[in-house]
Amino acid sequence: MVLLLFHRAVKMLSSFASSFRVASVPLVSCRGQAAQNVARIADWLTLAASRNIDLVVFPEACISGYASMAKLNRAELNALAEPLDGPSVRAVMDAVERTGVAAGVGLIERATDGQLFNSYLVCLPGGVRYCHRKLHAFEHPRIGSGDRFTVFAASAGIRIGILIGADNYVVENVRMTALMGATLLIAPHRTYGVSGEGSEWIQPMSMEQALNRASIANVARCEAACSAEKWLCRWLPARAVDNGMFVVFIDGADIAGQPKRAGAAMIVDPFGRTLADMSSGETTGGLVYAELDTRLIGVSPGREWLGARRSNLYGALSRSALNAADFDAQRVSAKGAVAVSFAQVRRNRVIG
Questions:
Q1: How many CB atoms lie within 10 A of CB 101?
Q2: What's the confidence (pLDDT) of residue 328?
Q3: Which fold has domain 17-318?
Q4: What angle do CA 87, 31, 55 make, to 5 degrees?
Q5: For 253-281, what is each residue's pLDDT tens digit?
Q6: How far apart are CA 291 and CA 267, in angstroms?
Q7: Rounded distance, CA 209 to CA 205, Å?
Q8: Given the DSSP bridges, would you call strands 344-346 and 349-351 parallel, antiparallel or unpaired?
C-alpha cells in the first residue's frame, strides 16, 4: 500500500525539485582526543564540500569520544566536558565557514552554571548554531537531561529536529518534533555496549536502567541475534512514515573499545525507503549521502495522517503512567454516566 502511495505521489510532483543534500559519517572517535576528533570532522567537511553536500551529520558524543562514561570520576568527566564556546566547537564552526557545509556534532557540554549535558550542535554557515540536550540521558549521574525539543529552519522546505540516541525510542518524542514542523530528523547515536555474542545493546532510557545489570542482560538475551543498529533500521523508517519526514541515523565507532565495528549510517525518506546506507552505492569513503527531494514531504501519507489527528482524544498521553483499568470500557462513572441497553433474542420474543 505504501509503495502504491509512493508511486502516485511521484506522479503528482512538479518538474522543479527542491533538494537538500545530506551526508552521514560514522566517525571514528576516541576518548580524550577532542582535537584529533575535530580534525577528522574538518576533513570530512572538506570532502563533503567537493560533493556539494549541504549538511554532514556526525554521531552522538563524537567530539568527546564514545566509550562508557558510567565509571568516570568527577575529574575525568570534567576533563571531557566543554562549553559551547570552547575550542572544539569553535574549530568546528571555523571548518563550517571554510567549507560552506553545515555540521551536526555531539559533545559533553558544560553549561554556564556548571551543569553537564549530552548535547548535539548543528552549526550552519554564517555562525548560526542550534543545540539540543539529550532528553533521556543515562551516561553518568552527573549528566543531566534536557527539558525541551529542538526544531529549526535550515533551508527552504527543510526544518530540522534533533533527537539523540535513546530520545528516538519514545514515539511521542518523534511526533512532537513533527508537530513542531520538523521535516528532517537527525538521529545521532552511539552504541551502548556489546554483549558476549557480539550484539550491540540498545541505549537505556534512564540511569537506573543503565545500572541494572539484570535488565541489560535481559535486553541482550532477548535481542542477541539483532544488533542495536538493526533495531533502529527497522524503527526509524516507521517513524519516518508515521510523521512524513526524512530521517538521518548515524552511529559511531571507537577503535580502542570496539575494533571490529565500523559504525552505521542510514538516510530514510518520508515513505520509509532507505535512500542510502553503508552498503549502498551513494558512499564516498564512508560518506553516506543522499539528495532529499523535499516535494515528497507534502505528499507523504504521514503528513496526511498528522492532519487527521484528533488531539482532543489524546489527553492521557501527558500522564507519566497509565492504569489499564482506567480505560475499561465496562466501567462507567456516576457523573456523566452513559445508559447502556441490550436485547436478548429468543425465538420470536425480545426481552429487554
A1: 26
A2: 65
A3: Nitrilase/N-carbamoyl-D-aminoacid amidohydrolase (3.60.110)
A4: 60
A5: 765 444 445 578 999 999 999 999 987 75
A6: 10
A7: 7
A8: antiparallel
The string of pLDDT tens digits covering residues 150-209 is 999 998 789 999 999 999 999 999 999 999 999 999 999 986 544 334 444 456 555 555
Band of residue 351 on the pLDDT scale cut at 50, 70, 90: very low
Q: Which three cell numbers stand for residue 14?
A: 512538479
By three-state DSSP, how is residue 110 classified? strand
Cell numbers 542477541 correspond to what residue? 224
In 3D, which of 109, 265, 80, 256 has the Cα closest to residue 187? 265
Exposure class string for 45-83: b at 16+ Cβ within 10 A, else e: bebbeeeebbbbbbbbbbbbbbbebeebeeeebeebbbe
Q: In the chain, which residue ranges form alpha helices assigned H by DSSP?
A: 2-12, 34-50, 74-80, 87-99, 171-179, 207-211, 213-222, 228-243, 295-299, 301-307
* Chain segment 60-96, per-residue pLDDT in tens: 999 998 878 888 999 999 999 999 999 999 999 999 9
pTM as predicted: 0.80
Strands 184-189 and 158-162: parallel
Task: Say if residues 268 and 275 touch (Cβ distance below 8 Å).
Answer: yes
The ranges assigned to domains in the chain are 17-318
